[in-house]
Fold these 3 entries.
Entry 1:
Amino acid sequence: MIASLRTLIGRSADIRVFSAGLLWSTFGTVIVRLTPMITTILISHWFGIEFVGKFGVTYGTLMSSSLLASAGVGLMATRNIAAYSINDPATAGRLAGMAFLLTGGAAALIGLMIFLFAHEIAGRLLKQPELAFYLQIIAPVIVVNAMNTVQTAILSGIQAFRTIARLNVIFGGLMITLVPVGLYFYGLSGSFIALGCAYLGGCLIAYPAVVAALRRRGIEIAFREAFSQWRLVTRYAVPALLASLLYEPVNWICTAMVVNNPDGLAQVGLYFIAMQLETLLLFVPQIVVQVVIPMLSTGFGEADRRRVINVLGMGIGTNIAIAIGFVVVMMTFGNWFLVLFKLDPAQHWPIFMIVVLAAAIIAAALPLGQVPVSSGYMWTGLSITAGWALTFIIATWFLQDRGALGIVIARAIAWSLQTVVYIGFTRFAIGRTCGEKGTLLRDRDLSTAPAKSASLDA
């Protein structure tokens, strides 16, 4: 009876933390995610599909480079700050300091390389020399975008979802105001300059908020001794960084294959519009993942099988419900979406239907994709991502003559296979990390020690 009551209370606490985190994170992310879609609609109406292709390639380079600099460190920060914030705030502070230093250094190096070699990238790799100017514009933007990403990762580690929401509202307001104005008066170059200003403003506003949120947990950012936690970099950040090297640039590589073909810019523009549809479907599932990571990390760290299964169940169930609803909406009103971008529904509908179905699969698989990170099997996660990358590249190579249709088919194949692998690995990780013995020890400890509850920032 007591054990059942304890289980019910623990499950209710997980649901409460999950629901509150999802609500605040969703509220703050809507405007940020809508800005690229609004910009794409405006470009398609004002300039045409080829300019959408130019924007898509340049914006994709910006996002891939920023995530390359910050994704590995951000995952390390989220996972380990969540683990150390309560019992060892000094270590959490050093981890936050190291995350800032590593991300800033990596982003500055990547931005400098893109600025110096913009003409070679545009002319030799993309076969579109006119893109060199835009690549040079976004080079410094990479730094501030990466810093924004790592600050959000740190806040996610302490489950400061309300703070993240407030910052995203401010940041989204800057983006949705500045970017269309820059686009209207100065074209694509104006949109990227405005985007950079929005990222810079968001970064400057976010840092004091991060410091204040950490101090409320008794955590002080420490830069001087930051690299004393280097072992966590080699264990978590390095494989996550390598996964980013595989994951993010793979999208860029596959796009480069298509853009080199006849009518390549128009096909990339069509693909970029299709990816806006995927972004629309996945923006809430990706927020679910942000909420799930620290909760899963806690569950695996405590070898709490019930908590891990509960969190995964909530995450997957929420994402499947969203995916089903979105598929129904697109089946009913999908033609309106295509007309919004000045596309022909009769000609382009197959591409977007494949994207919708693939995005539904991705949504269901996203919580499972966090299991390698949360359970400490980072190198296994890297291997799974490598398989996805190889599948995507090979399939795109064989289907590149079909343009946008070929790349979305290749993407659907890669994600379907990766989902199957994630299901198998999740069963293994739960059995290995949270076996029955670990659960029994956890129950025994709870019966003799006061419970600790996760808290959201006020």
Note: The chain has one domain: 2-448.
Entry 2:
Amino acid sequence: MSDPRTLVKSYQYIDLPGEPPEGKLWPGVNNIIVLRKHRDVVFDIKLKAGATYTLKTDQPESKYGRFYDTRRKQTTARTTFQDGEPLHIWVGRRFQGNLILSSEGKEIGRYAIKKMDCTGTCTDDPKDKPAPMIIAMGINQEAQPPVAKQPLGPVRSGAPAIWPLSAVDMSMMPKSFYSLDQFSQRDLWSCRLPVKLAPETEMASTQSVHISEVDKKSIPQELLDAVAAGGADETAIDRNKIATRNWLLGQLAGMGAFYSDNKEWIKELWSEKFRLSKVVHKNVGERWYVVFTGNPRLRKYVTAARYGVKNAKVLTMAGGAGSLGSGLNAAWEGSKGAFKKAGLVALIFTVAIDTAEWLHDYQQVDPETGKRKKDFADLLGKIGIDLAKAGLSAAIASALVGTVVALIGLTLPVSWIVVGTVIAAIGVGYVLDLIDKKTGAADSVTSWFRSIGESLKAVVEDLGRTMPNDYASYPMIFTPI
């Protein structure tokens, strides 16, 4: 005769192994503990050989401020791992606060898991799988698949409840282990849970990842060919092969962005003059001012006869001329300006040219090796170095203009400042591109992206191999188009 208590079932849910149920366990009924699917977070850090890293949460006392360490098989708020040793943790859906990564007492990164989840597709269904997160950092080095220093011994069969091990646990297995039928050895990859899962618990079906492919045919071939050819050395007008047709287009875009972002004061002051003036105040001492000619009442943007050299408007116009502090502020404001308003549009234009040039090379395949001339790491490297040069060029140009104005110390037409700023930006950009070409900085950045990409690919493939029902489709993200 069956126990009548089994007819009454009370489902209780937990996010991580070892957590207490959210509700009360009723006596005399069948209390079923259901473990919701967790979010996988993998840290793959290769910054300094032999370094030890600490991962902790900033809300360790909160019920939802902890994570599950797959190596130690326990829910914790703090763990450590070595450089080159991937750390795989489980994070509950209701995780609060931040994960903090540090080494030798210095914070490396702070990660708000909820804010980082750009998919937002996980429902309340316990079988629904939250999107994984992989945080990889490294220097230029050849990436190797994640391999732990010491393999874990197999867990004895017969455990009352099992749950699949993590991707990092799989990488800890000896190489010979992979020659076995992995799916028939599932009992060897299991770990004990402190609660007994319900027999009715089912694994979620395989999740699908939809990848949208951009068809090159959607871009006019004539335009693509013209832009791709515009970066060739044959189109350069200088002996260093820097000022190519595409480079000149980029400079025109930069000049247009500068005028668009500053047209208010350029129109008002184009025919005016300004000079630096030093005033010694009785209480505060020496102060520098920029004095403008003309009637300020007729102006809408520059409404005063003079401004302090640290004024935001002066920093924009004269590069912070007058003091070291204002010059540094101008350099900082200039670097930020490269990524805002029209400057951002010009930067997007540059990235579009980079992409067109890369796509042209990507389409070319070596008939002997079957490999493409360029890969995705080359595109990321080129864009990354161009972004860095954009900010650095704007900062140096602003500081240079301010220094020249301060050294001259004469009454200067505003039109000279405008033209001088444009010339300085072009000159600094040219020098930075020449340095890049001579030193191979872009190749170094590309190598770094390729190393990180290989590391991410290895982690994702481990996730797919360990939990195929959840991650079978993720490795395709790293498959070339």
Note: Residues 142-214, 475-481 have pLDDT under 50 and may be disordered.
Entry 3:
Amino acid sequence: MADKTTLELVRELYEGTSDRANTFRYWLIAFDVATILFVIGASFTDHGPMVQALALFLGVFICADLAARFAIAWSKVRFLSYPTTWADIVATVSFVLPLAGEGLGFLRVLRTLRLLHTYQLLVRLRGDFRFFRENEQVLGAAANLGVFLFVMTGIVYATQYRINPDIGNYADALYFTVTALTTTGFGDITLPGTSGRMIAVVIMIFGVTLFLRLAQVLFRPTKVRHPCPTCGLLLHDADAIHCKHCGTTVNIKTEGTV
């Protein structure tokens, strides 16, 4: 009975809608951010005993988080099929095994992105922060681009810092990633071999696509969140009178509306 109660408590924290559950998810995001900052900061050090001890400490917590989410998963097989689950497993191994180093710990950011896209957290963010409600699409597009930039920077660093004298830390890897994404290509830093060229190709193709998506969201007319009573279409033009999908009259409340 005690185990069942514990399991229900864990499920409520991860999937519930209570204030305690939402606070817990905020703390998870804060922990993920701290983990990411550690990965970046560690790249500028000599990876001494203190850094390895802190990496092990973070790895234990990540492992506990992974075990908790596995325990409450309704379908264990489906949970193990998620790319973010395997990214977490690789990140955990990267932190726990000293020989692996923390270079692959950047994959933790993928779980943070998935957490930000969960229904419960999105509802809470809309309720807690007016700025998020008014700029949700822009923030979402910026988050996707930022995560892609960070992940590709991490891949460049993890695959190059031992073999490429031009990549000594995350700043060097970030510099190369940004120049590749913007197709500037100064040429002062290059990734040798076929694998290096393929990484550059992925950065250019997918990075430019995400960048254009962000630009599209920034410059197109702002949409208003108002569910259509007939078809449920959520986003409408700010001055819309009828739903573009089904033609139903929509009464969108704006400033000055009584």
Note: The chain has three domains: 1-118, 135-220, 223-258.
